Model the fold of this input.
Amino acid sequence: MEYRLETRDITKRFGGLVAVDRVSMGVRPGEALALLGDNGAGKSTLIKMVSGVYRPDGGEIVIEGKAARIESPMDALALGIETIYQDLALAENLDVGANIFLGRERMKRRLGVLRVLDDASMAAEAKKVLDRLDIHIPSLRSTIRTLSGGQRQAVAISRSIYWDAKVLIMDEPTAALGIAEQRKVLNLVRTLKDQGLGIILISHQMYDVFEVADRLVVMRRGVKVGERLVKETTPDEVVGLIVGSETVGASRPAGENRAS
Amino acid sequence: MHHAPAGGFALSWEGIRTWLGGRWILAFLLLETVYFCATAQGFASPNSAQMLLFYGVEVFLLAIAELFVIITGGIDLSVGYVLGFASIIATKVISGLADAGTPPLAAVVLGAAVTLLLGLIPGLVNGWLVAYLGVPPFIATFSMLGICHGVSELLIGGIYAMGLPRLAADIGSGRLLYLAPGGVYSFFVRPEVERGTAVVELVPLMVVLAAVVIGILAFVLARMRFGRHVYAIGGNRDAALRAGIPVRRRLLQVYALSSVLASLAGLVYALKYVSGKADAGASSLLDSIAAVMIGGASMFGGSGTVGRTLVGCLVIGVLDLGLRMSGTPTFDKYILVGAILVCAVVVERYIEGNGK
Amino acid sequence: MNAAQAGARAARAPDRSLESGGKGFFASGLGRSLAKNWAACFLLVMVVVFSLTGKNFLSIVNFQNVIHLQTLPLLLAAAETFVIITGGIDLSIGFVAGLASVVAAKLMQVFVATGIPVGWVILLGTAGSLALSLLPGLLNGVVITRFKVPPFIATLGMWGIANGVALKLCQGFPVAGLPDALPRIGNGYLLYVLPGRFVSFFDKPASFPDARIRELWRLVPYSFPFVLAVLGTLAFVLRYGRFGRHTYAIGGSMDAAIRAGIDVDRHLVGIYVLSAALAGLAGVFNVFQTGIGNYTTFSSMYELFAIAAVVIGGASLSGGKGRIFGSVVGVLVLAFMENGLAISGVEPFYRYIAVGVLLVIAVVIDKLFPDLF
Done:
């Protein structure tokens, strides 16, 4: 099956520093790809290029076979690439509906002339998408500030779903959650896979990776050092790739790239 | 990530920019001074340098007060009116004591002590509000501004306080060293000479006072634990807390210090101008904050030094004096200070960005 | 702290008492309502107290007068509301208003000399000044967004620049020589009533002697509908418009706004331009009220009082909260405080003290009830 989203030899430099060095990877519809690597490996930078925050200095991004120009977050959103950041990027002082529709608010006409926020329909749509994902939030009109970490994560995810994301990028989705909520989020990821989304998961949690990811890509110092099918590898091997096999006892030679 | 080879230093554009960037404000000060020496009558003389320092004492003190507060990431809007408040207290107490028969020197000393002591109060309240109640510094100190203003006006009923003894004026306008023709010299006291003989006056006493105080504070900020703590709190308050620094107590102390310095400035004002006014310091507030910012401190806290703040003060002081001496109305000063302030911050940001 | 820790904090977060909005008494609906509207309650209590302690306080004439004179502060507070909601601050509005006032007056002065009809003089002067007052806002906005200068500094710089320019234009003196029609418009009333005799609109009957004007009931100054219209529109946009929603979003989380695709830079420039435009409007209207072009003096601190009013009205300096209605209440609290104290024979300087105390109360309440909107 063709990749839904693909990067080919993508590169990013900051001054004299090469943060991402000709990385090629891709995710297919209905698949979850885990992107792994230690701090500073370049995962976030790679993701930011895909989501339009940074512009690549080399290489290209390909969506469903066609080269894409992504010059701003809006471009990425328009192409169906939704990103859920570690800090969730939710406005605490607004309610669920407002957050889901942020930047793309629904308006209605009052008195024929004035264009006014259609809060009621936004709230209704919010409820629909939350229901679809089987998420329960007691009071939709209170502000995000009153929600728990897992609920906020759910709202962030719902926001992406609502806008028909084709590719969902999740940056450390379970990092700050309790056990019960972590399971809920992982279940959500499975649901999303079933619905045909391509998911890129950045995570340090081996458990998550081995629970929901189908493939994984490891980066180290800006370079892709390994790509594996999850069911054909082990946490030890993965850790070895992340830190560099010289330091961890691994059964495979360092830096070997295996095609998926 | 692998690094590209670093470019050559010295004569490269990057190199010059980096070196200059940190010192651009000094360069600006130099340019300014040269400009005014050339265009303003009488600017290039030792007397004007003394005038500069003499008139600038209050701003110097307020700027240092603001510096401490700004390093912690806060701001103190009340210093102007604390100055006014202190000038009134000083005038009233000293003149009251003198009138009641106390010898002038004792009156001045006691008055000064009372002023400084009372001057602690606004700072303690500010500090308590900010550190223990979590009130944003802007609000807390703005409130104190109003309160000081109100209390000051109440104390003097709308005019200004007067009546200081001769000694006060002598101290306020006195100099450290007087030189008269014929090898006559005298410390502190102006020598008796014939009318019309030129007496060289060196180093106003108030400047000496300010220099000593500021010198001590510079040392505290740079070398003593208190100073380290102040920087730490401004850099990362949480980290400071976890490192065991008594953050709340330090903040309280910083605001109290600010207020005492402002009171000292008020005392100086009273001695210099032999009067006390509620809004004596109102116009100095902008100058003092601008001086700190121009001197390179960050609005968000964690940086800034006494030396650079003083440079900032000089930039504004030279501007002020120069404009006055070349006959330009002071309207231009506001425009220029405003513009310089913004430019200073832009340059700071630019340098910071490039330094990464 | 990094994002993961922030998330962790969020996960442990909600103190259940916050969901109902408070502890103890304040958990109840009544308690919450009271705390949320404490400024309005305070205003009410103050009005009651002053009507008892001061003769003539509780009268239509007095109330109308007070509110009429608050036109400038009300417009400035509205301007500041938008800026503060985004988490910024605009220290320059006081002097921008003064600048607008001086510019309008100067323009009118010039036009009067050319002999064109009075109506055109006023129109051109007003339009010219309003157009010009957009400039400081634009500069503020660009310096803040493009050059990343903190709003405090940028607007502080503009504070100085606007002051200097205004002073230069008028050389320190109020600008006079303006058409007489101005104060008539600025201080006119909608209704003139002589009880039992007649009711007249827009002006007293021509046959009625000027000297006896005190006998008339003058109701509803022109400034009322003016301010109502302006503030009403602003409040509507803030609450129901996309611009308003984005303003709150930026204040709540600039990151969220950026990532949602909102052009935050452009929006912020718009906010500061709006702020300056409102300040300009205030300055121009001031010319109508006073009949001269009056630069604002150094220690007037109009901007600080506007900020105080907005905070008392429930906004938070860190952004994300605030309403036009709240700011209006804040302005009225300060205004009636001064008025009531003056009428009751108390030294007006207590006003400054009162403002200080009120501000602190406002902030403490904001801390206790962060979820109140």
